[in-house]
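tryptophan synthase, Yeguia hominis. Tokens?
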Amino acid sequence: MKNIPYKIYLSEEELPRQWYNVRADMKTDHSPILNPATLKPVTVSDLEPVFCTELAKQELNTTDRFIDIPDEVRDFYKMYRPSPLVRAYCLEKALGTPAKIYYKFEGQNTSGSHKLNSAIAQAYYAKQQGLTSLTTETGAGQWGTALSMACGYFGLKLRVYMVRVSSEQKPYRKAVMETYGAKVIPSPSDTTNVGRKILAEFPDNTGSLGTAISEAVEVAVSTEGTRYVLGSVLNQVLLHQTIIGLESKKALEKCDEYPDIVIGCAGGGSNLGGLMAPFMQDKLAGRHAPHFIAVEPASCPSLTRGKFAYDFCDTGKVTPLARMYTLGSGFIPSANHAGGLRYHGMSPILSQLYHDGYLDEARSVEQTKVFEAAELFARVEGTLPAPESSHAIAVAIQEALKCKETGEEKTILFGLTGTGYFDLAAYMAYNAGTMTDYIPTDADLERGFSCIPHLDGIQ
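Tokens:
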């Protein structure tokens, strides 16, 4: 019997030197992102007013399988990477399962999440281009915190539009962002045209990632020396996050292990996409591969109940159009506690892989079940997980209990994207019995679907 340690660490020398671009291996690349004015595929020049030039090139790169990680980014990674791959022995024992459960833990940095993997790369390219400031949005606050750290490191100014309900639920996230020098504005706000328009129509609007994106983009394109950056959904972000899966695969190889099932929470797709990409490469090449499961909140079910269509990536309809699983850019999700998963659409890469059957399965989970799983995990594994990550935990437990019934000794890998220490209000609500579940009705979804544009001859 193999003696596998509780935590498996790679050395600094084993830190990957390249990101993996899954688009180079996809059987059908996702449909091109469209310029909303011309409905033609966007070019680098179309994206340059919004994104850094190098990031725009990465966004449209379909051919380079591996892209070098800049030395300065890799050196920064060494502050908190390689991150540990953990064998969840205590969870296995609590469940009485023959399954072997591993999780990749991304919470060992101040931002408390995997978001720093892309934040530092995007800030680096902005600094290299000579820019002076960035704008962004954030839901739960993990991305905003990570980007504030990265901008603080490179001396860049940062304006963060934080979904209003999340800013109210997580005031200490705002405090951390401000500590690193960011300016944080609850969204929708009266600082932008799109924000004022939304507030005029819906004064009590609790906000959404789509709305916050609209505000951040508006400021970026109208402010000299400024660009917009995004923490999920985009191809460039999934590229940077493949550091998670590359490390996971190498750590498992050290134990002579390979996962039968890979599970990740899915909001915009950065965590799941980053974790599964190197294993997806095996599947696309016709080799043995895991069963991939995306887990999303029942309150915002873009994969399980959305439409595969071209849609705007923001509520204000100022961004390019992407073909993805979407609930409609006008969909306003409920104020559930998994703010990082509160987005109307899914990564075009993951959407295409799901549409083509390579991403095997999507499940939605109610938040009370998510927190039930989170508390079990916290009690037996010792780490308080973020609500977003706890969606993956819930399904990992489901799969492990299936193995208990069948006697199968499957190997399960899931992503623990971050810690839940800024989510204590949510844990308090669950423990007090005041947390409720919201599942949108078909009528709720139809209101969002009505916002999806109809593009003659394209959709």
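The first strand starts at residue 7 and ends at 8.
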